[in-house]
Write a structure and sequence with these properties.
The protein is mainly alpha-helical. The chain contains 2 helices and 2 strands; from the N terminus they run αββα. Strands 1-2 form a two-stranded antiparallel ribbon. A hairpin with a 4-residue loop joins β1 and β2.
């Protein structure tokens, strides 16, 4: 369990460093084709379908590689 926590901490630290030094690096995130954004006068609805599919695929691949290594 400790190995997974260390790996998660390293990933969070790398992501934080990228966001600090390159603030616009993830500007495309949430604006992919297939993400639904409905804006009316009194409300706003955002459904990030494509973004969540991409996150799921990347997370699955990362976990697969981690399980093979450990």
């Amino acid at each position: 369990m400790a190995k997974y926590i260390i790996i998660a901490g390293a990933v969070i630290m790398i992501a934080g460093t990228l966001l600090y030094f390159f603030p616009g690096i993830f500007r495309w995130f949430g604006r992919l084709p297939g993400d639904i954004n409905i804006v009316n006068e009194n409300s706003r609805v955002f459904i990030p379908i494509t973004t969540m599919l991409l996150v799921s695929i990347v997370a699955s691949l990362v976990l697969y590689v981690i399980r093979k290594i450990l």
